[in-house]
Structure formats: structure tokens, C-alpha cells
Amino acid sequence: MKKPIIIGNWKANKTLSEAKDWIATYKQTIGSVTKSTIILCPGFIHLQLLQEAKLGIDLGVQDVSRFSSGAYTGEISVGMLEGLARYALIGHSERRKNLQETDEVTFHKVKQARSAGLIPIVCVSELSQAENLLRGAPEFSETGIWLYEPLMAISTGPMGEPEDAGVAGKFARSLQQITSSVPVIYGGSVTPENVTNYLSLPEFSGVCAGGASLDPHKFASLILAAEKL
Ligand code: PGA
Question: What is the pTM of this model?
Fold first, then answer.
């Protein structure tokens, strides 16, 4: 039986008080989750709040600095995250697109994350991105989670029809050929309605939801739909 990995990515959303409301509603809605691994990636400012809320979910960050601690104003180094997060999204397509993050920057961030014991969730939209990373460090293929996010599906909704999932599954198979046995998950307009189209494919070990994770009801229904599979 599949033990799905469900990631929520809040992106640049939520004040502290909105995060508190999310926590209260999520607690009331979720009930008992028995088989999924739930990872929420909120903003850095929300980490402590979510940790104290004891929701039974793992926490991740949406990015880390490519530098270690030191004189890098505005950066969040992996050392600063000690005790706050277990996972780190690295190389998200929105960072590649809006902040011109290259494969080289992504490489350094994966390296930083690994050095601090954070589990990298490496995001790729093209096979060449994975190949470039692994060329520099073949050992990256053995840790963490790889997140496939097709550019046309990120924050665009509506996607996720069985045929879209099938195309994504094909990409995942090619990715698996170069990443050995690490889990590959899917991200891009995942909703409670289409989540099982992805999870029912053998290629995907889980999903990442951005928009759908912002609403605690939607995020909980997405998890519960995955649990029923
Ligand atoms: P989305 O984001 O669900 O809003 O498309 C997906 C992601 O960030 O991986």
C-alpha cells in the first residue's frame, strides 16, 4: 500500500494571524491521518508557530541560502534553521523564473541543505536540470525527494486530468532512470479532486500542492482523498 508524501507550499502568503486561523481550522478538520507523510512548507516567519501547534506534520522551508552562516544580509542560512525544519524545497520553478536561480545556485543550495541534515526536495521541470545537478554531485541522486513540476501546470489550474497525469508519469519514469530509488512526486495545480489521478500512478510517491494548501479545508480534503486510495 502506498504511503503518500503530501507537501503543502504556502509560497509568499499568510500573515501570522492568518496562519493561526489556518492552524485552528486544520486541527478541527483533519481527524486522524494514518498513512501519509505530510510536509508543510510555510514562510520562515510561520515555522515556530506551526511547530508549537503540534499538528503531526513535518515542516519544510521553501528555500535556503546558498551560503553558510555569515555576512549575507537578508539570507536564511541552513544553520539558522536548526530545530525548526526537516525538509527544504530547493530550485522551485518560481525561484528559477522570478529570481533567475540557475542550476549552479540550486546545486549549492542542495549541498548546504545536505550539510545541515535537511532533506532536500529538489524541484525540476526539465530533465536537463536534474542531469546538471547530478553531473556535479552524483550522490544527490540518493537522498531526498525529487519534485517534478511542469511549468505549464504551476499555479495555472485546471490541470490534473488523467491524461495530464499520464504525461507527467512518463517524465517521472525518465527522471527515475537517473535518480535511482528516491521518491518522485508531482506538483502543479493539484487539488482534492485530481490528487488521486497522480497518486494512482506507480511513478509518483506523492504530490505538492501550492494553491490548495492555503485553504485548510482544501488541504485536509486533499490529504483525506489520498488516505482513501
Ligand atoms: P500550485 O503550486 O499547486 O499552486 O500549482 C505547485 C507547487 O508549488 O509545486
Answer: 0.94
